[in-house]
Amino acid sequence: MARLVSLLAPGGRLVIVGLAYNRTFLDWAISGCGLPVSRFLARRNGGKLGPVGMPIEDSAMCWGEVREAVRSLLPGARFRRRLLWRYVAVWDKPVA
Q1: Cα–Cα distance between 6 and 89 in angstroms, integer?
Q2: Which of 40, 58, 76, 87 has its CA 20 to 30 A from that of 13?
Q3: How far apart are the C-alpha atoms of 18 and 76, rounded to whole Å?
């Protein structure tokens, strides 16, 4: 992430979309809310898991760890947990 920040021009925006794993009961409960939508989309799209050959890697961080890393590495970033087990972090690099 430090490399991405260094490549970003002043005033530029960094957007990170990622996945995290569940560790706490609350994590599991929130993720469970996405299950009906996930099942619906899988059924609507013929049950496909993703494009053949798409590289997939399991997350190495839980939700709390990801949130803390974003807060410490990107001060002032907006962190939002999204449906279907994803998060979005948006950070604007200061101009000066």
Answers
A1: 17
A2: 58
A3: 18
Q: Which amino acid is at 10?
A: P
What φ, ψ does residue 67 adopt, rounded to 5°?
A: -60, -45
Could you please report the per-residue DSSP string of the chain? -HHHHHHSPTT-EEEEEEE-B--SHHHHHHHHTTHHHHHHHHHHTTT--S-TT------SSBHHHHHHHHHHHSTT-EEEEETTTEEEEEEEPP--
* pLDDT digits (tens), the chain, 96 positions: 889 999 999 999 999 999 999 999 999 998 898 889 888 888 887 776 667 787 777 888 999 999 999 999 999 999 999 888 889 999 999 997
